[in-house]
């Protein structure tokens, strides 16, 4: 039986209204996912898709993927794969791969502890996630610094406040001041109490994954059977490109699959480094690495939700450093979207940039990334707000700057209204050839809501901007994020559930938490 109390929805509704009032100074859209209006951009035709598919199948059949997990190899061997225990390499039959891939759902819904924050993954929808996993954070006032729990918690406050942030795909910044053995316990506790949105569990050892699932279950007031019955959280695993899945990632993915929780499989295929220097070749490798893991998870639990991850970009061939938001990244994302649709799977992209500061480069590379993933119809976008320095830092100001862009993309995808009022023939008749539309009734009825209204852009003329302090976008974002933190209101949680979470964390800490090497 569920332990949800009858008054809980009313309490949740009251707090939602209270939260909205608390951040009324932020001119943001209501909570909603992006719903694609335009057709996806498809750089290649159906024959081209088949060529990439055939090449990926040849990689799986003739070259194989290394699986560094003995249980995974045993499962694949029993299913008929060719397994070399010496090299731990697994080769797949293409018909088996396609049969297993077809068992995965084309879309699914994840429901966090607040059902109002449920996310549809697939079916023409897109969900944006906060930046995840950087070891450093930065802002205009205090500069770049090592990640800590105080900054981690402030990032969570922003992720809760912004309606265009739909989930937390990890830790917005790594709280390195908490020992690694118990860090996941404190971090997940903060995620579950300070936000009410979907969260992610790192596949970094059995204890972290099992603890995360149990804490999500407790926070939602669910029985074990209720938790297992539908998606409540997810993990993201990265293959160790080229052509390898490592033990911790596989182990975590397999644990979630056994409880039918979603898994995103995202090869980190940087063209010229961990993947072929050609973008198409990198997409081939990305596809092969992803489908190998999809096949494994469907063998464990047919119908387990999986997401095809895409992170193919290129490196700077002068330095070897990753480059993001490049023309190659944009095309790779559009190609990835075509391949995901071919396999009837949802897919994940990222909003990434390589700039060391939230400057013009960061903005144009991030916007390029968003153009790539959104024109390719990604269903999940990781690192949608806050990423800088190639993922090594999370910037508070960049969170605000990115959220302005995300909100504009959601607005851009609104359905086009073709009603008689919108066609405005009578307004055109009223104004005629010698007037203007500023004063006509049609404009007067709509001027407050006619156009998108930004919360960060400054549209004043130069003189007015100068007189007001001549603040740059970076400075305005700094001011706004600091103001928003003072307006944060925590989402409600029943005292009994909070106490149960606290008791679980305390017990697991006494038991030592997760094993570490130090």
Automatic annotation (TrEMBL):
* Gene Ontology terms, MF aspect: methyltransferase activity
What are the alphabetically sorted keywords of the record?
A: Membrane, Methyltransferase, Transferase, Transmembrane, Transmembrane helix
> Has keyword Transmembrane helix?
yes
**Biological classification of the source:** Bacteria, Pseudomonadati, Pseudomonadota, Alphaproteobacteria, Rhodospirillales
* InterPro entries noted in UniProt: MttB-like_sf, MTTB_MeTrfase
The UniProt annotation puts the region (Disordered) at 1-23
What family is it from? Belongs to the trimethylamine methyltransferase family.
Report what the protein is called: Methyltransferase
The source's domain of life comes to Bacteria
The record's Gene Ontology biological-process terms are:
methanogenesis; methylation
State its Enzyme Commission number(s): 2.1.1.-
Q: Which ranges does the record mark as transmembrane?
A: 263-284
